[in-house]
Design a protein that fits this description.
Elements (H helix, E strand, L loop, with lengths): L2 H6 L3 H4 L12 E2 L8 H16 L4 H20 L3 H5 L3 H4 E2 L4 E4 L7 E2 L2 E2 L3 E4 L2 H13 L14 H14 L9 H14 L4 H8 L4 H5 L2 E2 L2 H19 L5 E11 L3 E8 L4 E7 H6 L7 E6 L5 E3 L11 E11 L4 E8 L4 E7 H7 L6 E6 L4 E5 L1
Antiparallel strand pairs: 1-7, 2-3, 3-6, 4-5, 8-9, 8-11, 9-10, 11-17, 12-16, 13-14, 13-16, 14-15
Length: about 375
């Protein structure tokens, strides 16, 4: 393997030094940590929304809406209550970029456009829209610039009331419990620990990791899942390519993503921009490319065929499983990866494809399915 590939695959994203502490989706919160699971958070959110919608008078509705939005910001950013109550919405919330700036004191030194004591946290699109609508609705209510300036004790009381209203213990309505719940929710969804640390504004990762723990059974299952996954890669599952994303060409609707495998094969896929963001693909992120057998074309050309197919790989036919109508042709690549093609038996006969001959396997970028590793 050349030096460039060697350097690429020694990066932290590949060598599992990215801080992912929950590679198998298994996690046991530390016993002393009080938190709500996602279902309970959704229940609490529904309680706040119902409470707001039940208000008849406009001034009461606005008051309740402000508290509901404070809850939603803590629930989706993991911020401290004090951070939310000190937000100046005119300068610290950007609905277009879907971001909120937290921990800004107003006197922090700016570096690269961001205050040294602050952090930028992304928020869901629906929350950004709700915030914009609320700011517009209260534009003439004298709240501009201090929409979130409310008494902390009053906010806490309303949080406790909402928790009790939906059958939860009062203590789980505590803003700190909601903040911890968001942290655990993110970690359980495989967000790297250092990233969760930055989102929460913790000074050290030990503060973040204090929320979680692994039981002996968890540890066994995590290791078993990792070893099984590693074994599947080593045995070169057919029509499956594991590697790092080495290039992303983003278009207006779809993006072209290139994966380079450990042995140097380059696989190109075209996916939607929505999928690109949902799977959080970035350059040097690990990913697996899969291709279904009917989408693979076999060519017996000696030289690389002239074709519109983005992916063209050379190998040797290692096995043929004949059928009356269709036939499976298994081609082994130089690194031992098997690519299975499903062709018509008549087509195989016409091309005289037999075991041991050199062939090319080709498939379109649109036929490659990408999975986040």
């Amino acid at each position: 393997m050349d030096k460039e590939l060697d350097k690429l695959f020694s990066e932290p994203a590949f060598s599992n030094r990215s801080g992912r502490i929950n590679p198998s989706g298994i996690l046991s919160p530390a016993e002393e940590v009080k938190y709500l699971d996602t279902a309970s958070l959704e229940l609490l959110e529904k309680s706040f929304r119902t409470w707001t919608d039940e208000a008849v008078r406009m001034d009461v509705r606005i008051s309740r809406k402000r508290i509901t939005l404070i809850f939603l910001l803590i629930r989706y950013t993991g911020a401290r209550l004090g951070e939310i109550l000190s937000i100046d919405e005119t300068s610290m919330i950007d609905p277009d970029k879907l971001t909120v700036r937290l921990g800004f004191s107003g006197i922090d030194k700016e570096e690269n456009g961001i205050a040294s004591g602050s952090r930028i946290v992304e928020i869901p699109a629906f929350l950004a829209a709700e915030l914009s609508n609320a700011f517009s609705m209260t534009e003439n209510a004298g709240l501009k610039g201090h929409f979130f300036y409310l008494d902390p004790a009053h906010v806490r009381r309303k949080f406790y009331e909402r928790a009790e209203a939906c059958g939860l213990l009062r203590e789980f309505g505590n803003p700190s419990a909601i903040r911890r719940s968001r942290a655990i929710e993110l970690i359980r969804n495989n967000i790297p620990l250092p990233m969760v640390q930055k989102i929460l504004g913790h000074s050290t990762s030990s503060l973040t990791s204090a929320y979680i723990d692994f039981s002996k059974e968890d540890l066994k299952q995590v290791l078993r899942n990792y070893v099984d996954k590693e074994s599947r890669r080593k045995t070169s599952a057919r029509n499956s390519f594991y590697g790092l994303i080495t290039r992303i060409n983003k278009g207006d609707i779809q993006s072209e993503v290139e994966i380079t495998t450990y042995s140097g094969h380059k696989i190109t896929s075209v996916i939607t921009n929505e999928s690109l963001e949902r799977l959080m693909f970035r350059e040097k992120s690990p990913a697996t490319a899969e291709i279904k057998a009917p989408w693979v074309v076999v060519s017996k050309d000696v030289e690389e065929p002239m074709s519109s197919a983005s992916n063209r790989l050379n190998g040797k036919v290692s096995r043929i499983i004949k059928g009356s109508i269709t036939t499976e042709v298994v081609v082994s690549l130089s690194d031992g990866t098997d690519v299975c093609a499903l062709v018509t038996e008549q087509g195989r006969v016409d091309l005289d494809i037999v075991e041991g001959v050199d062939v090319w396997v080709m498939f379109s970028a649109f036929s490659v399915i990408l999975n986040a590793d």
